[in-house]
């Protein structure tokens, strides 16, 4: 029988209050508390905390405090990527950030979602879909990326956009819902 964690990562309905997931969440929150309490100029300490938290932290990647996430182990950040202050990465499924991505302040990336059926939702079941941010992507400040979205390489997403559908590579996209407005 599949564990709740296995169901979560498979995009199936799962119970988030499962003891294994609760323990993983508690561990991540302890690491985040240390990370978020570390001074920004203590780069080695910040990197050490992030390396303990995330699945992959590419060489030269920088993440500014504060950061919020659920588990950390579902996050991969590519080499030379930059995540600015106050990002939220709800990583109930994989969040893959490519190399040399620029993530502006206050960006939220969500994998978590909930059933539309009220009775199922009230039962405590939820689900999650992976998010992929391609190499060289720039997400403007306060952008929200919704569950299941893939953003193609080198795409620029304007500040305040809400990305609910995949975006192709090499476009400028803006709005809520976010739409490509021109090729780059």
TrEMBL record:
N-terminal signal peptide: none
Keywords in alphabetical order: Acyltransferase, Nodulation, Repeat, Transferase
Enzyme class: transferase
This protein's record includes keyword Methyltransferase: no
Pfam families xref list: Hexapep (PF00132), Mac (PF12464)
EC numbers, comma separated: 2.3.1.-
GO MF, one example: galactoside O-acetyltransferase activity
Presence of the UniProt keyword Zinc-finger in the record: no
Residue stretches making up the Maltose/galactoside acetyltransferase domain: 5-59
Family, similarity comment: Belongs to the transferase hexapeptide repeat family.
Function: Acetyltransferase implicated in the O-acetylation of Nod factors.
Name of this protein: Acetyltransferase
Species, as recorded: Sphingomonas gellani
């Amino acid at each position: 029988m599949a564990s709740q964690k296995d169901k979560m990562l498979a995009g199936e309905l799962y119970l988030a209050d499962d003891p294994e997931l609760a323990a993983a969440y508690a561990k991540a929150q302890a690491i985040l508390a240390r990370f978020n309490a570390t001074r920004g100029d203590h780069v080695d300490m910040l990197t050490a905390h992030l390396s303990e938290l995330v699945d992959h932290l590419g060489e030269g990647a920088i993440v500014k405090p504060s950061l919020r996430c659920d588990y950390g182990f579902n996050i991969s950040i590519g080499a030379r990527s930059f995540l600015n202050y106050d990002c939220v990465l709800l990583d109930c499924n994989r969040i893959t950030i490519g190399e040399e991505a620029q993530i502006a302040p206050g960006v939220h990336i969500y994998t978590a979602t909930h059933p539309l059926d009220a009775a199922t939702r009230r039962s405590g079941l939820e689900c999650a879909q992976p998010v992929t941010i391609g190499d060289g992507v720039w997400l403007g400040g306060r952008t929200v990326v919704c569950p299941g979205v893939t953003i193609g390489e080198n795409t620029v997403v304007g500040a305040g956009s809400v990305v609910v559908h995949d975006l192709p590579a090499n476009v400028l996209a803006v709005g809520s819902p976010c739409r490509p407005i021109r090729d780059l």
